[in-house]
Amino acid sequence: MFTTILSAIPLWVFPLLFGLVWLGSRASKSRAVSSWLVYALPMLGLLSLTAAQGLAQAETALTAMAVAYIAGALWGYRAQAAWVIRRDARRVHLRGEWVTMVTILSLFILNFATGIVQGMAPALAEGATFALGFGLLAGVLSGSLMGRALRVARWPVAA
């Protein structure tokens, strides 16, 4: 069974996982990053949007995702204030934290596990409860990245 799962994984998944781990480990240390990286990170939520649309109960998943996205964005907006040191014209100076690693890997694992469930237990993936759970988790995680990016965008630019 494990070899069946491994053989069905597209090759691009492994470099993506490596890149996400690298990105998350960088976030654990204080750093200065290009503003575009902070603004691009919420795009990871698009992966979950595609997965939600592929569920049998897509409407349930997308509705839950939209509501949870707002809640996640509000939380991310508030939380990001603790990590921003300063922002200048092109760079953002951030304190180290592990929330980024947990968030992006949770999104990756959620989407990966959803694909596995759809392939191995399609009856489970077709239920409204599965779609609701997926939508809530994906929405909160994706929304938190957007909220954090919005906080950085609104942060005063240092002279």
UniProtKB/TrEMBL annotation:
The keyword Membrane applies. It comes from the Bacteria. The keyword Membrane applies. The chain crosses the membrane at residues 6-24, 36-55, 61-77, 98-121, 127-146. Keywords: Membrane, Transmembrane, Transmembrane helix. InterPro entries: DUF6622. Pfam families: DUF6622 (PF20327). This is DUF1453 domain-containing protein. The lineage of its organism: Bacteria, Pseudomonadati, Pseudomonadota, Alphaproteobacteria, Rhodobacterales.
